[in-house]
Amino acid sequence: MAVGMVFVFTAGEIDLSVGSVVAISALIAAMVMREYAWPLAVLAGLGAGIGIGLLNGALVAYARLPSFLVTLATMGLLAGVARWLTNLQSVPITQSLFNNLFGAGRLAGIPSLVFWTVAVVGIGHFIHRETRFGAHVHATGDNARAARAIGIRIEQVRLAVLVISATTAALAGLLYAGRLHGARYTLGETDLLTVIAAVIVGGTRLNGGIGTVTGALIGSLLMGMLNNGLILMGLSVSEQMMVRGLIILAAVALTLREPNR
Q: Which of 185, 216, 186, 210 has its CA nearest to residue 198?
């Protein structure tokens, strides 16, 4: 999710719906897997994320609505849909191959989640730093008018980054489902603050133009260590969310005070 959010922030947008996309994608995949083969369920889960990203992106890029308001509305809508789909019940997953591939298995003693992390970070870093699309994302976030003036189709860039964000959130939902051997409407509901904090702490500017995928990885690892530390200290979930909120506030304040270059 942090990798996808780097693209969104770099383009000068924000995506608040990632946590709800996690739950929807995991639930859809688990429900499809009841009747069909797991590859079809994976496609259904990822397809749900792509569809949500297209909806968010179209409203932001072509209806010219603020991404904050669009994804805030989508977050609430999807949270309701996730509860309605299963009537607040968990959906178990008994497909052992799916569970092993998506989070619960190991290869040569290494958890499969490590391989997913390396793959997503590697692909994300390459696209973000080494491709023309990545350069267009940076230019759009740095100065949208100047980017348009030199021929960059900023509407397509904004659409694409929101699709990337929703797709990575959908993949996160599949990894949650595989690791936990099931899906529930609560998956991802507390991840938004952690993802935003990881991205900002990793060096991506909130107001666009500068971002780093490898920094998001480091930020994610730091936030994971922080979460573990808060749990060991005996803090409740609400207290942990408060601490993460303070971290985001401090990181944003430091980022916005940096001199423009």
A: 216
Please, are residues 160 and 59 in contact by the beta-carbon 8 Å criterion?
Answer: no
On whether the CB atoms of residues 18 and 228 are closer than 8 A, the answer is: no
Amino acid identity of residue 177, one-letter, is A
CB 23 within 8 Å of CB 79? yes
Sign (positive or negative) of CA dihedral 128, 52, 59, 9: negative
Burial 102-122 (b: 16+ CB within 10 A, else e): bbbbeeeeeebbeebbeebbe
Cα–Cα distance measured from residue 86 to residue 202, given in angstroms and rounded to the nearest whole number:
36
C-alpha to C-alpha distances, 94 to 21, 45, 99, 132, 177, nearest whole angstrom? 22, 16, 8, 42, 11
146-167 pLDDT per residue, tens: 999 999 999 999 999 999 999 9
Paired strand residues for 91 = 183
The pLDDT, as a whole number, for residue 14 is 93
Q: Rounded distance, CA 202 to CA 210, Å?
A: 11
Task: For residues 261 and 168, give the distance between their C-alpha atoms in angstroms, rounded to a whole number.
Answer: 31
Mean pLDDT of 46-55: 96
- How many other C-beta atoms are found inside a 10 Å radius of the C-beta of residue 242? 14
Q: Sorting pLDDT into bands at 50, 70 and 90, what band is 261? A: very low
Q: pTM for the complete prediction?
A: 0.90
1 within 8 A of 128, measured Cβ to Cβ: no
* Cβ(21)–Cβ(169) below 8 Å: yes
